[in-house]
Amino acid sequence: MPTASFSLLLCLSFFTYTTVHSKLLSQLTSPYLSPTTIFPHYQNMLEAFKIFIYTPDEAFTFNSSAESLFIASLQNSTFVTHDAEEAHLFFIPFSSNLSTRSIARVIRRFKENIPYWNRTLGADHFYLSCAGLGYESDRNLVELKKNSVQISCFPAPDGNFIPHKDISLPPLASSQAPYTPANKTASFLGYFRHGGIKESILVKELVNDPDFLIESQPSDLLTYKERLATSKFCLFEYGGDVSGIGEALRFGCVPAVITDRPIKDLPFMDVLRWQEIAVFVPLGGVKELKRVLVRTCGDRHEQMRNLGVKASRHFVWNELPQPFDSFHTVMYQLWRRRHTIRYPRRVTV
């Protein structure tokens, strides 16, 4: 009997070790926070997710290409239903330049004439606003801001984003070309395309450092790809131009985000392990920047580079959405936020 008990204990210990080891191995080779669940949950979303789009009072437009692509993709997708009773979420469309007073009137109209908002005070609703909404005193705007899911652009203005509820759109990259391994030795520790912001303190400090390549714009797209493929890190100032962060991941250039505060609005924060695909550098000058980057070189850099390439497919915007691209990953985040309460359907007699 003791022998049998010992054998059972040994078996259970081996099973526990194998399970833990498998989880650790999947985390080391996957860019996802939950590598074992994302794919079945994604498939469930494709099969079941339904969204009802409110009819706007007037035609709506958006200021950014990412916003326009998202709404066009949503409207033409199989996620849209015309039966509000089967919807998981409700989309409130309004123009980017609509005043807060006008937005408050839109919500007031929904509350007075349409029953769905009042069931949850907007908790199963979402809206699109690139700049995001700040805090207003109007009760309708307070409910919209605090309860509904906001989809904004990255980076969102400080104070206009609520972590764990809101979602940020990844920037629209200039190149959607797939990654092809370059097998080239890195020529630079860091590459910084600063977009012509000459007054940037970082640009002034780095421009004469031979370890970094700093330029306003590369001469052509092919040159830009070459810069990414031959640099260990690509530098981005949080709050500045981050449009190339998806391209950096795609071409194996680990993003190094320089920031003076914790970042809470990264795209796909509840999907990707950002700490494993990017470096976050506190604002502290060139010496601190180089210290962090050099410390991350070697095997650690290669692991981040490989995971970043795997994650890069989520940063691609397509005119016709493709599996796991930006549109579908945003939809997956909405699916995770769908309201859990299901209301009884109306019965017609």
Automatic annotation (TrEMBL):
Subcellular location: Golgi apparatus membrane
Signal peptide segment: 1-22
InterPro entries associated with the record: Exostosin, Exostosin_GT47
GO MF term list: glycosyltransferase activity
Domain (Exostosin GT47) ranges: 47-293
Membrane topology value: Single-pass type II membrane protein
Keyword Transmembrane: yes
Predominant localisation class: Golgi
Cellular component terms (Gene Ontology): Golgi membrane
The entry's keywords: Glycosyltransferase, Golgi apparatus, Signal, Signal-anchor, Transferase, Transmembrane
PANTHER family cross-referenced by the UniProt entry: EXOSTOSIN GT47 DOMAIN-CONTAINING PROTEIN (PTHR11062:SF253), EXOSTOSIN HEPARAN SULFATE GLYCOSYLTRANSFERASE -RELATED (PTHR11062)
Family membership noted in the UniProt record: Belongs to the glycosyltransferase 47 family.
Entry protein name: Exostosin GT47 domain-containing protein
